[in-house]
Amino acid sequence: MAVDLAAAGFTVEEGLELALEGWAASTADVAAGFLAGTPMHPAIEQRGEHVAVVRTTVAEDMTARLGRGPVSALMTTYVFLGAVWTWDALVSGMAELFSTRTPHMVPGADVWHHK
What does the alpha-carbon distance between residue 49 and residue 58 come to, in Å, rounded to a whole number? Predict the structure, then answer.
């Protein structure tokens, strides 16, 4: 990730990985979070799919695998301290970064645990 940030015009001074346990009341809530809170939402729309239909399908599949009820999983995020080189470098780097990336954020069924 530090390489991607540098390509976007940032100087990375420090990085930190944080892992916490996340909770959801149901697999439907997990599916909604993944589809609404990640780059998957616009990717689904770009493919011409209806997000609500995909969300229902994902929730049904997760419920079939994990059962009904609350779920929990380890969630990881990365925090970086850094600085922007210049505005031009930031704009140029971000444009390059986003034009070459395809989101691949599909959770593995073995990651989620039924509670």
Answer: 13
From residue 108, alpha-carbon distances to 64, 66, 89, 103 in Å are 14, 12, 36, 15
Residue bearing the bigger pLDDT, 40 or 91? 40
Q: Six-digit token pair at 76?
A: 């990881």
Point out which residues pair with 71 in neighbouring strands: 24, 114
Question: Helix 51-66 vs helix 27-36: angle between axes, to the nearest 10 degrees?
Answer: 140
7 within 8 A of 96, measured Cβ to Cβ: yes
pTM exceeding 0.70:
no
CA gyration radius, the chain = 17
Measured between its terminal Cα atoms, the distance across the chain in Å is: 32
**Confidence band of 86 (pLDDT split at 50, 70, 90):** low
Closest CA relative to residue 5, chosen from 106, 67, 85? 85
| Contacting residues for 66 by C-beta, under 8 A, at least 6 apart | 27, 109, 112, 113, 114
Q: Is the pLDDT of residue 28 over 50?
A: yes
